[in-house]
Amino acid sequence: MTNVRTFIDSNVLIAAARGKEDIAARAFAVLDDPDRVLITSDFIRLEVLPKARYHKQEAEAQFYDEFFEAVRHTVPASKELVEVAQKEAESAGLQAFDALHVAAACEAEADEFVTAEKPTKTVFRTRAIEVKTIFPAEPD
User: Fold this and answer.
1) Which CATH number fits the domain that encloses residue 114?
2) Helix (H, G, I), strand (E, B), or coil: what is residue 113?
3) What pLDDT is attached to residue 138?
């Protein structure tokens, strides 16, 4: 795996910042992988930073700030992106923010979308991009 363009879902950042050891370790395995080019969007920033700052979670907010400074590509919010997201939400039955994130990942030409969601969640319905999860596998 070399230079895999990876869009990071907000819940992966939250898992790294305040998750229990096992899920945090899975998140950091993705975030710290030198073979990945990390991608984010203005929507991810909006989803994680305001709450951390409002609740005065300084270490968490600093972690997010460092992530946003380090990523290679940030997809800006735009009317066109929202239109693409709406089409994706309608065709795949996605939640609003999931549709925005998928649209941003596609705009950035990401190879994969990494989330902490369970594989049964609606974001896995998209066919626009490969969705992978750090959620622990269910025992058989």
Assistant:
1) 3.40.50.1010
2) strand
3) 63
For 81-128, the pLDDT digits (tens) are: 999 999 999 999 999 999 999 999 999 999 999 999 999 999 999 999
Pairing of strands 4-8, 112-115: parallel
Cα separation, 2 vs 7, whole angstroms: 15
The runs of H, that is alpha helices, within 76-122 are 79-92, 96-107
- Is residue 134 over pLDDT 90? yes
Cβ-based burial of 40 (10 A; exposed 0-12, middle 13-18, buried ≥19)? buried
The C-alpha atoms of residue 103 and residue 109 are separated, in whole angstroms, by 10
- Record the tokens describing residue 35, joined without a space: 């073979």
Task: Classify residue 136: in a domain, yes or no.
Answer: no
Q: CA-to-CA distance for 29 and 120, rounded, in angstroms?
A: 22
Please give the Cα distance from 63 to 88 (Å, whole number): 30
Where in the sequence is the domain holding 59, given as residue range(s)? 4-131
DSSP codes of every residue in 41-55? EHHHHHHHHHHHHHT
**Cβ 16 vs Cβ 26: under 8 Å:** no
